[in-house]
Known about the structure:
Arc Repressor Mutant, subunit A; four-stranded antiparallel sheet; DNA-binding; Jelly Rolls
Amino acid sequence: MNLSFNIENFINDFESNCHKVKKRVFSKNEVITSYIEKRNQFCILVNGNADLVRYDLNGNRTIVEHFSTNDIFGEVFYTVTTNNELLVEAREKCEVLIYTYDDIHTKCRTNCKFHQKLSECLPELILNKVTDLNMRVELLTKRSIRDKLLGYFSLLSTRTLSKTFSLPFSLTDLADYLSVDRSAMMREIKVLKEDGFIEKEGNKITLLYK
Amino acid sequence: MNLSFNIENFINDFESNCHKVKKRVFSKNEVITSYIEKRNQFCILVNGNADLVRYDLNGNRTIVEHFSTNDIFGEVFYTVTTNNELLVEAREKCEVLIYTYDDIHTKCRTNCKFHQKLSECLPELILNKVTDLNMRVELLTKRSIRDKLLGYFSLLSTRTLSKTFSLPFSLTDLADYLSVDRSAMMREIKVLKEDGFIEKEGNKITLLYK
DNA sequence: ATATTTTTGTTGCTTTTGCAACAGAAAAAC
DNA sequence: GTTTTTCTGTTGCAAAAGCAACAAAAATAT
């Protein structure tokens, strides 16, 4: 993610200077925020892991996005409608900076160091988010469960620079992330093992093809 | 899309000042660019309509993104791998600004007006792209063809502020955009008509539910 | 104006995916 | 350390989606 800024400095800067940013700590399974129209919240995950989840009318749960350290989220990135209830849930202890986006241009012309730094780094932070979202779209447009799994595994393999890697999700969550039925996904994982595409031990996957 | 900058000024500014940005015109069906690792191309669609398409090994075509006036694209937003051939194809005559992103910070400290303007507006342009991508993810995570269609129609209805709207795609392209089989999609449209959810006349759709 | 290509609409059949239900393993809570 | 909850793994059956193929309509090219 080679970001050219250090988020730790962020925290020190804003604590002495800025009253518009709040730092909050959330424990596992807590709801960090829910997306509400026109509030324009903008959040930075300083550390931890969290998911943006949606529950639809059929009771399906979807993990819309998965966030880890330095990821940004909030309704400022989302066209909120009444059809979708969106919650950001902490998967483990999370430290979060919460800010109201309002108008980045006017905010950043105050003398506050935090906003100076933010406006400087925002393009890079958002660019990072865009590439994440594009990879997500790429995965979701795959036509079969098999291709989604292989695509996701290959992504993790590339990221970790290794043929063996552990899943950052439980299998239940992975199904919700790939937007498929869990039992159908389990069946497909079994077939992938039988066909010699992958090996699986606990939550560790090894790719057997080059 | 209420952007606080005018892209027309962009064009005038850079033509007199900047040698690093090229403006090019493409005719219908021309390939505007293909995504190639490490080239870091960044493009602004000044006007026209274009699609980012992927052809997979099974011969499936996917419309990954659809671009219209003021949308931005290029491999700077994409983690390009050898598994995916990605082309941006003009749907109609398109005017495009093509720029190499390289390092936005150093570029923008020259005296070139274009880069000043660009760095100023970039967060807003990208933010717009992020909300588009999030809507796309929302659509793609719907579990059935029916829900994808209804979700997409509802989106168009919201955008046009009307229950009746025309599709910006042919039905063939719509299937590639929703990432589903065309004949299955046609069947589902028929069912939606029979069930009284929609009306369809040519490429105009009317939503019959509130 | 006519020929060619693309798009729309449809259908029968096959394959994939989803649903429901359950048992054992693992993890978390008490 | 025992209980409770969540997660994994599996299966039979039902429903949905994909595939192939074709004809008619519409759009585009010549």
